[in-house]
Automatic annotation (TrEMBL), chain A:
Residues 2-227 form the ABC transporter domain. Coiled coil: none annotated. This is ABC transporter ATP-binding protein. Signal peptide: none annotated. It comes from Liquorilactobacillus uvarum DSM 19971. PANTHER family: ABC TRANSPORTER ATP-BINDING PROTEIN MG467-RELATED (PTHR42798:SF2), LIPOPROTEIN-RELEASING SYSTEM ATP-BINDING PROTEIN LOLD (PTHR42798). GO terms for molecular function: ATP binding; ATP hydrolysis activity; transmembrane transporter activity.
Length: 227, 393
């Protein structure tokens, strides 16, 4: 599904430019649950930003279902993001002025649907993440774990090809972390959703199927987790 | 994203901060209200002037031509029936009617009372009215007027001066032109136009041949005729061919140019106040721009999230642009209503009504949308061009 070839990424320009990613080669197939591990500053977030179509300024080639993403325009990126990928962030990234239901429905609105038409979908997906009664609440009135569930609901509402989770448990206590991980595993096994997760928590990473270690912008190791 | 959903999104965002949204609108409200007020009052003045200066209800314009004799004691009144016929036949294309302007009040005329010729003032009545009282004899009745009875009322002061007592005056004869009237009553306590020497029945007086002349004629023009030019031509025609051209002069008041002159003054006043309101709208627009810039930088996270879940730069730009336009359009509509109310209130103290037209509404709507677009575009563009990676990091 995802084929990355010789991707390099620089921050800044000229003499002060900083080489973040060095010749990354990576393939991910459908249905995989991949963890990307590394120290802070190792470039793991940069890598998933590229994988998740958030960052279109990189050197190298990126084939998504054999489409050359590196040749796409910014507008095409928006559409690609909207239809193919769901994001779960460490600090949830919910819009606090909107209700939970509006937050979850946001990707569908940008897909061109009407508010009335998406109510059922939003309700279903909130039930799936275990928050059937939260739809009219504001995110700030929910606990961290609940907020993360909302953001997962928002990520899966469009039935995306894959999920990008950037430190999804980073701001949660261990009990809530376990619950969120259970939810991820469920999504992966039941719905066959591909999940790409960044974490620096070994315990969390061990619950996935494949761990990729990154150090200083280079892939250090890439191995299956032994069940 | 569907446009209607974008609209709802913008509306939602504005409602998050109602106080700030309202304060931002105030500048627009005041600017538009000022413009609408002055335009409504200007329209009112124009309509009032048109109504005052145009005699006919159908919108046809009229002009009066006056004759001024060189010698004020001259017997001629200036216009004869013959003059009118000539004007009718020579200017039939432009004129729909030519008439004597009949004075019915305060007419000066030569009368014969007893054996004396004298110049007296007289007013015409159609029957009894409350502007005077009868002290002796009886009043002129409606039927006197209808059947052309040659009766007259004499002023009490003149009666006592000429006849000694009121009773002596009753029954004496009064000649006006070719007609002789019988004095049937003495009137007193007359006011305004009725404080004259004699009162005569209107129809009887106008029917007499002596009234077949006049010092003023009234021209009614066909629609679309340039009144100033046509009047000028008729006056110069009269100067060559008029029956009394050697004994006096013909003059007319150019209502048309008077009218357009006043209209011009009002128009330029409207432009002047609109210009001041324009400055206020400009400043209000900058206020909107400022608020939008603040809003964009405050809501950087929101913009990032929207972009991450698949919003295109275009829909982000439209969202913020629509917020600005909504602010200014609501301000504009509010200003329109306030302006309307203010104009109506002011016109209570003035002798004319404020007139708000659909055009004024369109102006308020158009100007406020324009302000929103012009001053909302840059902040909206900035919102759309934000770097997603920088926001999410």
């Amino acid at each position: 599904m995802i084929d990355i070839k010789n991707v390099n990424k620089f921050y800044g320009q000229g003499d002060s430019s900083f080489h973040v990613l060095h010749d990354i080669n990576l393939s991910i197939s459908e249905g995989e649950f991949v963890s990307i591990m590394g120290q802070s500053g190792s470039g793991k977030s940069t890598l998933i930003n590229i994988i998740g179509f958030l960052d279109d300024e990189f050197k190298g080639e990126y084939f998504y279902y054999n489409h050359p993403i590196h040749e796409y325009t910014r507008t095409q990126f928006s559409k690609l993001r909207n239809q193919n990928v769901g994001f779960v962030f460490q600090n949830f990234k919910l819009i606090n002025t909107l209700t939970v239901a509006d937050n979850v429905g946001l990707p569908l609105l940008y897909a061109g649907e009407k508010r009335k038409a998406i109510k059922e979908q939003v309700k279903d997906v909130l039930e799936a993440v275990g928050l059937p009664d939260a739809s009219e609440k504001k995110p700030t009135n929910l606990s961290g774990g609940q907020q993360q569930r909302v953001s997962i609901a928002r990520a899966i509402v469009t039935n995306p090809q894959f999920l990008i989770a950037d430190e999804p448990t980073g701001a949660l206590d261990s009990k809530t972390s376990r619950e969120i991980m259970t939810l991820f595993k469920e999504l992966n096994q039941k719905n066959k959703t591909t999940i790409i997760m960044v974490t620096h928590d070994e315990k969390v990473a061990l619950q996935s199927e494949r761990i990729i270690q990154i150090l200083d912008g280079r892939i250090l190791s890439d191995k299956k987790v032994n069940a | 994203m569907l446009f209607i959903e974008l609209l709802k999104t913008s509306w939602q965002s504005l409602r998050v901060n109602p106080k700030r949204s309202f304060l931002t609108m105030i500048g627009i409200v005041i600017g538009i209200a000022a413009v609408i007020t002055i335009i409504a009052l200007g329209n009112g003045v124009k309509a009032k002037i048109l109504k005052e200066l145009q005699a006919t209800n159908t919108g046809k314009q009229t002009t009066e031509i006056n004759y001024y004799p060189n010698d004020s004691t001259a017997a001629t009144q200036g216009f004869s029936e013959n003059d009118l016929e000539q004007i009718r036949s020579n200017f039939s294309a432009t004129l729909s009617a030519v008439k004597f302007k009949r004075d019915t009040k305060n007419i000066s005329n030569t009368v014969t009372m007893g054996n004396d010729n004298r110049t007296a003032t007289l007013s015409l009545v159609k029957g009894a009215n409350q502007h005077y009282d009868i002290s002796t004899g009886h009043n002129i009745t409606k039927s006197d007027n209808e059947v052309n009875n040659q009766v007259a009322l004499l002023n009490k002061k003149l009666a006592i001066k000429e006849y000694g007592t009121e009773e002596n005056a009753l029954g004496s004869a009064l000649s006006v032109g070719d007609n002789t009237y019988k004095i049937v009553g003495i009137f007193t306590k007359a006011s305004d136009d009725y404080n004259v020497d004699f009162l005569l029945p209107q129809k009887t007086y106008l029917y007499s041949t002596a009234a077949q002349n006049g010092s003023t004629i009234k021209l009614t023009f066909n629609k679309g005729v340039k009144v100033s030019n046509a009047s000028k031509k008729i006056v110069s025609f009269l100067k060559k061919n008029g029956s009394s051209r050697k004994a006096g002069s013909y003059e007319y008041t150019d209502m048309g140019s008077l009218l357009s002159g006043i209209s011009k003054v009002i128009s330029s006043l409207t432009y002047f106040i609109s210009a001041i309101a324009g400055i206020s709208l400009f400043i209000a627009g900058i206020g909107v721009m400022n608020m939008m810039y603040i809003s964009v930088s405050e809501r950087t996270q929101e913009i990032g999230i929207r972009l991450a879940v698949g919003a295109s730069g275009r829909s982000i730009m439209l969202q913020f642009l629509l917020e600005a336009i909504m602010l200014t359009v609501f301000g504009g509509l509010l200003g329109f209503l306030i302006g309307w109310g203010t104009a109506a209130l002011i016109s209570l103290a003035l002798p004319f009504k404020a007139i708000v037209t659909f055009g004024s509404f369109l102006l308020a709507f158009g100007v406020s949308s324009l302000v929103g677009i012009v001053f909302g575009l840059l902040p909206a563009k900035q919102a759309a061009n934000k770097n997603l990676i920088d926001i999410l990091r």
